[in-house]
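Predict the structure of Cyclic GMP-AMP synthase.
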Amino acid sequence: QHLVVNAGAVAHAAAQPVQGVHLPHEVPLPDAAEGRVAGHFPWAMTQGDPQHRPQPPATSPAQRRSPRRGDPRRPRELPPPTPGTRGGTDGADPVREQQRAGPAASGRRRRLRARMAPADHHHLVARRCRRPDLAARPAVPGTRRRGQRQAAAAAPAPAARTPAAPRSVAALPDGAVSAPARRPPPAADALRLREVLSRLSLGREDVSEAATLVNRVVSHLVQAIRGKESFFSSIERYSAGSYYERVKISEPNEFDIMLVMPVARIQLDQSDDTGAYYYVSFKRSPTEKGWLKFLEEDGKLSAFKMLEALREIIKQEVKNIKDVKVTVARKKAGSPAITLQIKNPPSEISVDIILTLKAQHSWPLSTQGGLKIEQWLGTKVRRDLRITPLYLVKHEQKNKWNTWRLSFSHIEKLMIHNHGNSKTCCESDGPKCCRKGCLKLLKYLLEQLKMKYPKELEKFCSYHVKTAFLHSCVTWPNDSDWQSGCLDHCFQQCLEFFVDCLQKSQLTHFFIPQYNLFSLEDKARHHFLSRKISHELNNGFPVFHENY
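Done. Here is the predicted structure for Cyclic GMP-AMP synthase.
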């Protein structure tokens, strides 16, 4: 008797926090137990006004049938409350009503109530005040008792949420039964991209013949330069560019060769606010007196004078190369390279020779926030790359003839060769990725569009798409993001990133975050290229097949 009375008192106390009264020793009710007590004592969940008391849900005749006396599994259903009675009963004390449900049911509720902490009960009541829908949330499957399962079977099932149909698949009408799901075949776009990529692969015989010819010409020139001018005696050769990064497309007809000159104890003074261009001067008088003739009156090292001296030596020496016809192309405004044209019937090979300074100098502050490859290649790799020598190439700006530009070609070459998040990516016995394939397709798309719209796209170059590709590698650093079978998806992601940069006229230098490779003066050109790329993306890249 005492246990039954306490259970009724606790049920009454559990409803008091809703009215603003908090008892210090409230015993919480679990969801299932609280629902049963509220069903027997509707007055416990009301505000005292009979007009505002919640009405019990409508039930079928089978559900209103009284259970067997003493059956602990199903509490007795009560008739709807009538005005003037307390709690929907015939005036009897609510404790007696609970007693009629049987001592076993009362003991079961008592055991359930002991499992919830008081603090959890306050939190539950507060949440139900804010979220009335929580009270109707179904219990965890498999935990319902027999009576609850029967009631759930009689109640109508909630409407299931219709999943969104894929973009290329029509949605089924209501009530229709779909066929069993099958693995979709490879997308047509993916097959076409792989066909294009296979055409871009260079033939081994052509590559071998072109590389042999270039190596013979460049080796002859390097030996001649070292012997003719003592100032250039320490010059070194470094191969850079897309061919040596193994992302060259179409034909092996373009090569980049850096002629590197070591220089010691230099001082860098920033020439503008981009953080990419600098004046170079010596901290002390150079031990090699040949440097003095390339210094300006203010002590700055003249990139223009050095490149002109190198050009004259090369122009004289190409005449001594036998069996191969080599000419020096005319100067291009702002170009840091000396371009050689090597006749190789039926085609012609172009070789850009770039004069480069190699300084044992710490990287400038403008590069501090760049090269964010920690999640892609690792923190240790970034630290090792940042302690490599600093490279500078000649670059002309408006009214500035003596400026040098920071060059990271050697770093880019290392990253593209070792591009995997794991050490075994694209090795002979390791998993393959599609990173290089995406870069080739990006370069080829820009190349084809430039051929189609040469005037509008003359200011764009392959370095723009290469930078966007490196940013994409940082955005999706894991090898699982670049699986070989996902070429079409990965290529689309890279293109969308590049189009977003074009629309914003903002392409951040990969090594110098404050340097925007897109000039704000060329917004119209950026938007033009973004429209053309979007058109190609939405129509299956017709430009890939126009010249075939």
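The beta strands are 236-240, 254-263, 266-270, 277-282, 326-328, 337-344, 347-359, 390-394, 404-407.
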